[in-house]
Amino acid sequence: xxxxxxxxxxxxxxxxxxxxxxxxxxxxxxxxxxxxxxxxxxxxxxxxxxxxxxxxxxxxxxxxxxxxxxxxxxxxxxxxxxxxxxxxxxxxxxxxxxxxxxxxxxxxxxxxxxxxxxxxxxxxxxxxxxxxxxxxxxxxxxxxxxxxxxxxxxxxxxxxxxxxxxxxxxxxxxx
Length: 175
Prior knowledge:
- With 175 residues, the protein is an all-alpha fold.
- The chain has two domains: 1-63, no CATH class; 97-162.
- It is built from eight helices and no strands.
- The chain has helices at 11-27, 32-44, 48-55, 81-85, 97-119, 129-149, 151-154, 156-173.
- The chain starts with 10 loop residues before the first helix and ends with a helix.
- 7% of the residues are buried.
- Mean pLDDT is 79; it is low at 77-86.
């Protein structure tokens, strides 16, 4: 019988480890450099053993119902057990993260094509406009649509269901 460490990992396993590493980064358990290195290794991993080595020094994630963390005072939610189980959703202020995510790729590619254009002499037709223009127009329309109709918020519950499904699959596989 094959040992678990030698079995090939699937894409969903790599994604689970990537999400666990992101949680560790958000908790302050990993530096940005460590996170970047481990994330690169996670997506290059071939076996469960490769993935396990990336998580070995991180504590396991406990569901909120089984967490041993207890609020310090009644003001923090000890008097109300439902308040301790359901974290408050932070108030959304400022620049929505999804806009940054949507436009960061465009900005990166725009910088690259402009640098190439400048390094090749910057003469003649300004060809980067054919890369930046159509893509930017589509992104602008999507951004306006998302801001007006709140499209990003509508997908929050769908993403939460998808994450819960993925966590159940990982629990069955032994992660």
